[in-house]
Amino acid sequence: MTISISFSLVFFNLCLNKYIPSHNASAIVFSKSNPSYSSLYRAYMRNSRFSTNSTPKPAVIITPLEESHVSAAVICTQKVGFHLKVRGGGHDYEGLSYVSDEPFFMLDMFNMRSISVDIANEMAWVQAGATLGELYYNIWQRSNVHGFPAGVCPTVGAAGHISGAGYGTMLRKYGVSADQVVDAKIVDVNGKILNRQAMGEDLFWAIRGGGAASFGVVLAYKVKLVSVPETVTVFRVERFLGDNDTTDIAFKWQSVAPATDKNLFMRMLLQPMPRNNRTTLRVTIKALYLGDANGVVALLGNEFPELQLTKEQCIEMRWIDSVLWWANFEVGTPLTKLLDRDANYAFFLKRKSDYVQTPIPRDGLELLWEKIIELRHVGMGLNPYGGRMSEIKATEIALPHRAGNLYKIQYGINWEEPGDDADMDYRSRARKLHKFMTQFVSKNPRRAYLNYRDIDIGTTKSWSYEEGKVYGESYYNGNYDRLVDVKTATDPNNFFRNAQSIPPRSSKTT
Length: 510
Hints:
The chain is of the alpha+beta class. It has helices at 2-19, 37-43, 67-79, 132-142, 158-163, 171-174, 196-199, 201-206, 246-256, 293-303, 319-326, 362-375, 420-436, 465-476, 480-490, and strands at residues 29-31, 60-62, 83-87, 104-108, 115-118, 123-127, 146-147, 181-187, 193-194, 217-224, 226-227, 232-240, 264-275, 278-289, 314-317, 348-356, 379-384, 407-415. It folds into three domains: 2-108, 2-Layer Sandwich (Uridine Diphospho-n-acetylenolpyruvylglucosamine Reductase, domain 2); 115-227, 2-Layer Sandwich (Uridine Diphospho-n-acetylenolpyruvylglucosamine Reductase, domain 3), CATH 3.30.465.10; 232-317 and 347-440, 3-Layer(aba) Sandwich (Vanillyl-alcohol Oxidase, Chain A, domain 3), CATH 3.40.462.
């Protein structure tokens, strides 16, 4: 096998030099014998579960500097018979962009991170290797009244985030990140660089919410910017179990948060917390309002009096400062912090997701409090839908989760202890809470969010239509079949694949 890989690498480099003759291929290709290999591999590994010695690693890491390098990598990887993984920010929770059971090369896009902002036309081109923080910062440099509706973690890679739909604190006002995409550049299985017109509307539809990793390598997205007021308001309100109104607030949140003014996004966090030498539950309402403090206090005084929000609990700031606040930085943190890629920073972690379409009854919430306290360590983030999300058709882009959903749940658990025993213990806690919630969440299918990648839903080894349907209907619901058709038309031999990718059909009648 070593001899085979060695010969493959020789031929791979020869192939690259043929397709990019103006560059020495060795400058962008790092084999395991290269002193920089280990640091490159670890730099954007955001989940320490995959940092063990036994984790399968790429035979080489390719770090393209130009679009032509990506095309050459796709062509040459196929010529030597390897599989290709594509990594951006590395935040895919199951490590599917840098782990594989098959011999593989990894294409790491971190060098391709240019951002071009056109304020006059309210557009921006964002290369695949850019982070959300870099995008936000570049927009702010040119305008204080524009933003982009995407995630709260600045180190997330823009292309992966958008291709899986992407969402953030302006979800209810503007929809998901992928709703703002007007053009894209992608390298297809033949190594061709295609824009929207060249790729056609079916592929363009698929790479907005369907996960681009099944179809090609995204080079860049062109996105619409959105308007934000000069002053926005944030607030955080906390209650602990035992406070008289904790369950009342959580229960009422379910009806208010998805139905209130589109300018208000209120996330509810349910977290087990140590208090007075025992584990209890903390309920936190964390919010962004696209307006001033007087406006949100008056709004919630009428719609959500149980919260007892006061102006003193609110902080008015610029939208760009709210980005840092949501990322848990202190007020006054320099905006250049958004440019910090925070390489080599990772927890052991597991994430899962759900959608809720009917409010959980009060007695159900009380049972949930008991389960969270019993399991400890596992928290839940509840993100309201409604607003713009209920207005966009489920078939508009590949993301199907629109009207009918009150809110989305993210289950999260982090730990620091290495080893299989810890891994098994903490992951099982997340699964137990997820199983408990079966009675309260969507059914037939039980829905999940692609960017909260979770292999517990199902995986494939044969990449058959039926295997893919197990997880495909959870992530894509009624859009799964159309995604399969796009895959069949664009990558019939299934070069772009992972454990939860879209499979091609063996025939139209499969």
